[in-house]
Amino acid sequence: MTAHDVSADIEAVVEDTELPRRLKDEVYSTIEERGVGVDDADRIAKAVETRYLDTRVDPLDPVGTVSAQSIGEPGTQMTMNTFHYAGVAEIDVTQGLPRLIELVDARKTPDTPMMTVHLDEEYATDRERAHEVVWKIEATRILALGDISTNVADMLVEIDLNEDTLLERWPTVNDTDAIAEEIAETIESNLGVSTRQAGTLIEFGPEEPSYRDLLQLVEELREIVFKGIEEITRVVIRKEETDNGEEFVLYTEGSDFGEVLDIEGVDASRTTCNNIHEIYRELGVEAARETLINETMNTLEEQGLDDVNVRHLMLVADIMTNEGTIESIGRHGISGSKDSVLARAAFEVTVNHLLDAAIHGEVDELDGVTENVIVGKPIKLGTGDVNLRMGTTQD
Amino acid sequence: MVDVSQHDLVPDHSVVDEDDLEAVLTEYEIKKTDLPKIKRTDKALPDDAEVGDVVRIVRDSRTTDEAVVYRLVVE
Description:
The complex is a heterodimer.
Chain A: H1 8-15, H2 21-34, H3 38-55, H4 63-75, H5 96-104, E1 114-118, H6 121-124, H7 127-137, H8 142-145, E2 146-151, E3 156-161, H9 163-169, H10 176-191, E4 196-198, E5 201-204, H11 211-223, E6 234-242, E7 245-253, H12 257-262, E8 272-273, H13 276-283, H14 285-302, H15 310-320, H16 341-347, H17 350-360, H18 369-375
Antiparallel strand pairs in A: 1-7, 1-8, 2-3, 3-5, 4-5, 6-7
Chain B: E1 12-15, H1 18-28, E2 37-39, E3 54-60, E4 66-74
Parallel strand pairs in B: 2-4
Antiparallel strand pairs in B: 1-3, 3-4
């Protein structure tokens, strides 16, 4: 049952091997391309199978150590500090080593949170409609809407709203007065003052004439979010090629994954975020694991280190999500929760671990690698875990 | 409310029944508690999953077609 144009005999030969689906497909396409006969096909399939079985990890192979080395070595070639630009237009994204450290440390919030927001079909193809979503996401504060001036003589804050901006940011409302009214209401409920609104002019002042209160009001006014999501400071809209045509994709500076998924027009099946904790909260551990792998792989690729095998990154992500939550590698996470005192002491803050272990009377079973290296015994990996015994009978 | 299971990043989760679970545990010679865990509050869990259940997760694997893993539901 293959999509490739090969004879039934060849198919039987290839299907007979222990290869995984993906490799079988590759074998098929090579056979099809070269037009080889059944005998040759059999030999090819057997050779590929032998090679595949050879490259599988042996029992007792120290996969963790190999992963650590395989990520660590390319890590030394990474840039210590890169800001600016990450393939995505005009958006600052932390990259290189700082980003990698951030990921394995499982920081609560990344240095530069961002989201990639995909849109539902009707929004994704129409620039106007895509902009509707942009204004639902990007936080709109008063400075973007008009000019604020303080009238000290009458103790008033005066806002002169810009009509064009209003119409642009509220694309579904056509009446600037109605929008200004909405803004005035938001101000009233947030600052607890009464406002006077006429056309696009809004003015209000403190209850008692006080210069300090007046300035305080202006400060607070600047913080109010009139539209959009508070955390998101900027949205960039980009046209991207897809398999079937073009679509608009939004990139955001700042992230609030949960809020964005609920917005109308947002495709909740493809939208992603670079904060693994937000993904975990909204989509669960498995999605967080996927994101961890994607993000670490992208970080390495961005630095031209794409020859690191994904399997290493998958192992790291597996360990980090093993307990059903996201744990960091390191003293406060995986390495700090090891059973062995000696292994923990060998990692960081040696004295504290030894002291605590002594106080609590901990016992070290000497099961792991580090402990055995410390006490000078063979480690239980590879040939170290195999015991040979001489037979008692002679024959 | 957004349907979490529709997201590309979320693989298929399903509760494993007793017999299947027994087969899996004997195959790998492990106890149920040796499995990786998943929190009861996890968004991707099926509604009928309870603490102590094991869920089967069928991932779209990067290295083969699909990878089947199991997680034990914990508090």
